[in-house]
From TrEMBL:
This is Acyl-CoA dehydrogenase. It comes from the Bacteria. It comes from Mariniflexile ostreae. Gene3D superfamilies: Acyl-CoA dehydrogenase/oxidase, N-terminal domain (1.10.540.10), Butyryl-CoA Dehydrogenase, subunit A, domain 2 (2.40.110.10).
């Protein structure tokens, strides 16, 4: 049974909530979506980049919060590749509940060096899926004997960490117009010890699975880009149900198809380069980011141009069209493709 058919087991009313209920969370766990990129040896699906991107796009097309949450949390589980074997064995082998990482990409706190580990303190914003997480990920400036460490260029030394949910206080401050069930709350950590083995750096990898050889910036760009494509596709589908002159939507359909083709091309090129043992050229990394940024910008402008044509139904909060609009434009506030 293909994913689209299995998604129809989900009740729409279950999805359109402040948080996902047990029905949705159980479905995600049954589909093993938190572990999209995790190796099969550790209970994951071990998806290729191409297949994983297609699955994330389908989820976002079905429901923005569902796609966004699975993307960000499975994307945090991608840090499997940055953790040493003894650490991933301890976390992913025989867990009591399905492992779900998530957290903040911002450097909002500090990590004070101690023998064998660090003491973490701070408040981090925007942890997608906060109530669903088993482990929180965060980045912090390193402090040694009360002095912030800096590198040879004078920039703060930063490391990332994985900590158990019990070490975290969730701050329920996600009050947005859309992507509500992503529950992207802030969280606080107050003088919590973490062993050094639960610390990592994005550029260091300890596992040879092909997916972990992808530059993290490219992985982030592509996995989020397909969410915008999925939500845009859903918006187009719903707009066709409302607008009498469907030819006015043709341009939007062309934009979406162009984006789909580009994503597939990039994914196949990346997979081929990794198969050949090559690192991704810096020019590719910049090109993919620029292409994704331009694509999302054009989607946004086109949706804004279409919206006034769709009548009061598009403005009614009870309507799917309105929810997609709110989800999409909440997603545009993520820093990854925004131009401040």
């Amino acid at each position: 049974m293909i994913l689209q058919e299995r998604m129809h087991k989900l009740n729409t009313s279950d999805l359109n909530q402040e948080v996902f209920n047990e029905n949705v969370l159980n479905w995600i766990s049954q589909e093993n979506l938190w572990n999209l990129w995790v190796p099969q040896s550790h209970g994951g699906l071990e998806m290729s980049l191409s297949k994983g991107l297609e699955k994330l796009k389908c989820l976002a097309q079905y429901d923005g919060s569902l796609g966004w949450t699975v993307t960000l949390c499975s994307g945090a589980n991608f840090f499997f590749g940055n953790l040493k074997k003894e650490t991933v064995d301890a976390v992913f082998l025989n867990p009591k509940t399905p492992v779900c990482f998530g957290g903040s990409g911002g450097v909002f706190g500090t990590a004070e060096k101690k023998d064998g580990g660090y003491v973490l303190s701070g408040v981090w914003k925007y942890a997608t899926g906060a109530p669903y997480l088993t482990h929180f990920t965060l980045s912090a400036k390193i402090i040694d004997n009360g002095v912030p460490l800096v590198d040879k260029d004078g920039a703060p030394v930063v490391r990332s960490f994985v900590i158990d949910k019990d070490a975290v206080e969730i701050i329920p401050d996600w009050n947005t117009m859309g992507l509500k069930a992503t529950a992207t709350h802030s969280f606080k950590v107050n003088n919590k010890w973490v062993d050094a083995s639960y610390s990592f750096i994005y550029q260091e990898r300890y596992h040879e699975h092909p997916i972990f050889k992808i530059h993290f910036a490219v992985f982030a760009d592509l996995t989020l880009w397909v969410n915008y494509i999925g939500m845009a596709t859903h918006f187009l589908e719903e707009a066709k149900q409302v607008l009498m002159d469907k030819s006015r939507l043709d341009y939007f359909g062309i934009l979406i198809e162009k984006a789909n083709i580009k994503v597939k091309e990039y994914a196949l090129k990346i997979e081929n380069e990794i198969r050949l043992g090559h690192d991704l050229p810096e020019i590719w990394i910049k090109e993919i980011h620029q292409e994704a940024s331009d694509s999302v910008k054009t989607f946004s402008e086109t949706i804004i141009n279409i919206f006034p044509l769709l009548g009061i139904r598009a403005c009614s909060e009870s309507q799917k069209l309105n929810q997609i609009f709110r989800d999409y434009f909440t997603a545009t506030q993520h820093h990854i493709f925004s131009r401040k």
